[in-house]
């Protein structure tokens, strides 16, 4: 009934996997290497981020709201204070906060040792915790201690080689003001091994938070020297999901969908997505909604897809922020019998996703405020604001848009700055954007925002030409012609494509109202 109504407006591909500042800064030169965007983004590792082995461009230092808070009672193996029925397990809603990790400044110890707790060394802190953990059989305390060990290992330079281990290894001793003897400080690998053993014991006792953390550690490579081990992680995700852990259910569904550690099984994937979505998990709701609308995973249910996308939008958070963006795509053009075109509402949804950190939504709003799309007024300040949010999350197109703004300026919001323009173009080129590679070549050849360097310019032209950029090919042909004694103008493209700069101040002018850079 609805298939004919949707027609060719389906915004989703058949195999598209599930996804995972208030003021304007006038000097926005990127200082960090932006990660390349990959078509398949695996879920971010909730706790076991080890720097360069992280799953996404930016990490979150605060605990992820992915797990249910456990009861203070520890007499039962279940993580609640009473036996859970099947109905109870099906109605555990997302978010599920884990036991809070221990603060590294030792502030939680001051009630035991006084105001000098912050002066305790890491070795003495570990000794104190070990003594207390040995005296109790509380899974929450043991879990918190395991997390503390991992945090200590990361602070000591986990994964940075033997130099960090030697530097962290110090002789033990006794502080006469402290009742705890500090032995030789453990290496990061030893701390990680101890934490893994504790988590494994808790996982064997069906403690779901430990099962999830252990699975996440294997999947991210934390426990395998950077090598992903979904074969070990998958059964742990499944086990934790059976104890009502929503995030584990979502991760198990991804494993079934993409064959990570198991055989691909779309039906099983849908089963686990539904299980997690029933607990209000925004990632699962988004994936179910998109699957119903696109027809993949064996699903083709128009109204159910809209229901899940709307619920995912209501529950979207910083980690799972894609639902409002995808719902906005539907309202931008209209979709089927129940979604009418409403550009203003689409802009509202894009803004919601952008505020939660969705790079593509930020880019779309930057473009809308630049060109007056989606019922938005032309507003250079908001355009730069949203472009900046997208660029700082690695969006190459937004980097080039900022390059364009800096080339012309937008007084009084943004001063013209060719150095900033070059830096953003360089970042976009390093992300692999072809037109940015050509632009950097042109900047370098002409000395715009940087020192003139014909040899380096030629390198960028070659990169762009190899990626299929016709202007780069024409520019290389002109350079070769000039080197052989010909007239360089003979090789200039007939359409006169080149870097244009406007002096109007508030708007970028030229073809398509934005050609202050090579388009």
Automatic annotation (TrEMBL):
Keywords: Repeat
Segments for region (Disordered): 1-80, 161-189, 485-519
Pfam families listed in its UniProt record: Sel1
Family matches, as InterPro entries: Chitin_Synth_Reg, Sel1-like, TPR-like_helical_dom_sf
Chain intervals with Basic and acidic residues compositional bias: 510-519
Compositionally skewed regions (Polar residues) per UniProt: 41-65
Stated name of the protein: HCP-like protein
Naturally occurring in which organism (per UniProt): Amorphotheca resinae ATCC 22711
Lineage of producing organism: Eukaryota, Fungi, Dikarya, Ascomycota, Pezizomycotina
